[in-house]
Amino acid sequence: MQSSERLSFMPVSLQDMQERGIQQLDFVFISGDAYVDHSSFAAAILGRFLESKGFTVGVIPQPDWKDCQSFTVLGKPKYAFWVSAGAMDSMVSNYTANNKPRSSDVYAHGGVAGKRPDRALITYTAKIKEAYKGIPVIIGGIEASLRRFAHYDYWSNTVRRSILLDSKADLLIYGMGEHPIAEIAQGFREGKSITQLRGIRGTCWRTGKKEDIPAGATDGQGKFQPTIFLPSFKEVSANTPEGKKSFAHSYIMQEKNTDAMSAHILVEQSEERFVVQEPPAFPLTTEEFDAVMELPFTRRWHPMYDVPAENGKIGVPGLSEVKFSLVNNRGCFGACSFCAITFHQGKRIQCRSHDSLIKEATILTGDKEFKGYIHD
Ligand code: SF4
């Protein structure tokens, strides 16, 4: 493996850090996916995004969750760990709809299954806290987003409480992360503690004190919107007709507050604690979206995957699906009940400029594997 090739990726080892002259990283990403430096992979997007703002960032992809040392290979970061289960919820990734273990994982080295734990955010956060007592852990990605409040969990056939409480993470980012991650990182740079990083759009935080909960927030049109208390976890998890009605009512309130321009702060009580959801992050402007997609991605998997995995295959199969496609937009107003897009990316459609798309398409045509078409 050429050291010069590795230098174009974010560090994944102490040696990588030394070669870049980094003593201590500002942030470390833990991801349930293999490390692919492409704009369809969150650790790559958000890591590159933070680098563009002058932060140093390392990646620990698919750590061995049974071994605490796997979480310390880059040392203790100066500010915090960002933790994601990966591009998919870990239970969706690990099990079929019939609750059978999947035989492969397209986001792992060689497509080998079993490289990420069930309920990855809970497991990863516990291991980090075991390794580094007191370090802030911030969870995000689709698993955090869709489990931010009490939610129905298909695999256990129960209503589970917020993953922020179950994981004991310090902060949760929901939706697409650029705006909140930039604000949180800047807050750390200014010397703020994790509890001073409340009030950031696109985040959820927890508290045991009702007096911490703000009375409301100013929406995207300058109007004060009072805080809304959702039905409590006890109400929505009751296995009664009233419980099911409360669950439906809570979900409707959450869905009605997915637009950054009009959303309220939402609060859900769970026993003696409260999960507070700040209004969604404002959508990226076209210029911001272009800038994110034009970050210096190598557009390939990390060279550590150029050797055969246990099954003899090289690489990360999930890359082939996106390598020759373009991300044109985010968000959807549809809010179809079976789809996560509105709940994760918001109601407003955000688009890139034609110039930015043409620039990326031109890069694709220069790849020696390009076959002459850009697919969906
Ligand atoms: S399925 Fe999803 S992306 Fe399609 S219209 Fe419905 S909410 Fe939008």
Automatic annotation (TrEMBL):
<dbReference type="InterPro" id="IPR013704">
    <property type="entry name" value="UPF0313_N"/>
</dbReference>
<dbReference type="GO" id="GO:0046872">
    <property type="term" value="F:metal ion binding"/>
</dbReference>
<keyword id="KW-0479">Metal-binding</keyword>
<keyword id="KW-0004">4Fe-4S</keyword>
<keyword id="KW-0949">S-adenosyl-L-methionine</keyword>
<dbReference type="InterPro" id="IPR022946">
    <property type="entry name" value="UPF0313"/>
</dbReference>
<feature type="domain" description="UPF0313">
    <location>
        <begin position="9"/>
        <end position="325"/>
    </location>
</feature>
<keyword id="KW-0411">Iron-sulfur</keyword>
<dbReference type="InterPro" id="IPR007197">
    <property type="entry name" value="rSAM"/>
</dbReference>
<dbReference type="GO" id="GO:0003824">
    <property type="term" value="F:catalytic activity"/>
</dbReference>
<protein>
    <submittedName>
        <fullName>YgiQ family radical SAM protein</fullName>
    </submittedName>
</protein>
<dbReference type="GO" id="GO:0051539">
    <property type="term" value="F:4 iron, 4 sulfur cluster binding"/>
</dbReference>
<dbReference type="Pfam" id="PF08497">
    <property type="entry name" value="Radical_SAM_N"/>
</dbReference>
<keyword id="KW-0408">Iron</keyword>
